[in-house]
Design a protein that fits this description.
Elements: H1 25-35, H2 51-63, H3 70-76, H4 80-86, H5 93-102, H6 109-118, H7 126-130, E1 134-144, E2 153-155, E3 159-169, E4 174-182, H8 187-193, E5 199-203, H9 210-218, E6 222-226, E7 233-238, H10 243-247, E8 250-258, E9 271-279, E10 286-293, H11 300-309, H12 311-323, H13 334-355, H14 361-371, H15 377-385
Amino acid sequence: MADNEAQPRGRKHKPKIRARDVRGAKYLRNVMKLLRPLRAHKDCSNRKLHYDEYVAYLLLYFFSPIVTSLRGLQQVSTLEKVQKELGLPRFSLGSFSEARNVFDPTLLEPVIAALLDEATDAGADPRLAALDVEATVVDSTMLRAMPKMLWAFWRSGNVHAAKAHIEYSLLKSAPTKATITTARRPDGHVLDETLCGGKLYVLDRGYADYSLMADILEAESSFVVRLQHNAVCKDAEERVLTAAARRRGIVSDRVVTLGSKTKPALREHRIRVVEVHVPSRKSGDTTVLLLATDRLDIDVELIADLYRYRWQVELFFRWFKTILGANRLLALSENGLTLVVYCGLIASLLLSVWTGRKPTKRTYEMFCLYFAGWAEEHELEAHIEALPPAIG
């Protein structure tokens, strides 16, 4: 181009999405059966874009790398192939934007539960299956937000952020529930509002609040939580440790009275405190963990392992935001962002169901190549067959 020739201005137009750029009907058709009950949503009767169709398009967005925006997704809806093979209607940007503000995200929880039933627990610690409660890690991760998302105001300097509070099943190695709040909401408060029975909550020290721990017990659940080092403990019983436990870095196993006169919420309960020393491979320093639990019957090594397994949720956060791309916004409202995150959880579970293993970057990329038309079905199946067996 000559130096004096005018350069084109403005944003470059993205190439149009063609029918051959979008595939995957075989995999999404089975999902549509699970989504069908959403059609009964109270706000579906007078709409052209129904709840199940809205979710199907969001799943198509997650598995089609060529679709990077809402306008791109709207263009996909105009393709005859998509309309015919998936039975999805064409939608307008206005109807899609309205849908994310009226549909109830909690109605997706039965879909997640159904996929969890299908997901294999191969490779999980067999001791988790033997528990009489569901071992569940609870933690949160930040989601970037735009300045126009006024509900997500975080701190001065016009900084906005949301927070996804995730419940993660250690047995299934999969997410089970999400709650979206502003980044300013304390993690413990959100968990206190969503407690249910029959769970063993595995928590980091940000949740080490005696009142919260008492509420967990009142909800007929249990906990393993890392205490702050200034926790007030009055010893009642010292338990004998095996040589195997000591080799694992477990220093003591005590039954105590936890709390003080100013923090009496747990003083009526017998609480077990397990001290674990974890050496650092890099610095050579030792991290001291004080793990509190109400379960006096669980093997002390399993208590230590449960907290170690807590890091699975951190790996999931990295997968969820960096690889799956759930940190990209398709909604500005709190309700709409909750819908996007729930559909991201469903996409993660689908990969587990389709492959029988935890989702990985390579496998996700292979599915994306298939959905984009670059990989054939037999190549995708060969990739799944070649995956290493799940290892606990």
